[in-house]
Structure prediction request, 125 residues.
Amino acid sequence: MTAPYDHYKTIPNPPAKFTQKKKKPKMVAVVDEDNCTGCQACVPFCPVDCIRPVPPEKYAIPIAPVQIRFNECIGCSVCARVCSQLTWDAIEMLPTAEFEAKYNIELTDALTPPYGRLKTAASPL
Ligand code: SF4
Ligand code: SF4
Prediction:
């Protein structure tokens, strides 16, 4: 028989201090905002502190869902594990190339520009 807390064993401790992305990751976390409860349980676990509530004007509801600052994400998947183990299952880890094609965003190695660069006809990949 397993102890009740076995369910939580895959969840790491929150980071002692936040770091920063050093290169473009292989995976990117994406929150399904329609599934996110806005509980923010995932927020303190992100080692680069890049999970934030979406701007309040986007949803006319008291508790807004969260979203990732994509260009800061290091693809560690901690947030997805926390969400699925502690609360819901609202975070999907996407391969970076798939993410860029799906959302028309080009991520960079650096932290600037801060949210990635929207691909345009004038600046295709
Ligand atoms: S833990 Fe899941 S449901 Fe809660 S805010 Fe984070 S993504 Fe949303
Ligand atoms: S995968 Fe999640 S926890 Fe890890 S850096 Fe990205 S947003 Fe933060």
In short: The mean pLDDT is 87. The beta strands are 27-31, 51-53, 66-68, 91-95, 105-106, 117-118.
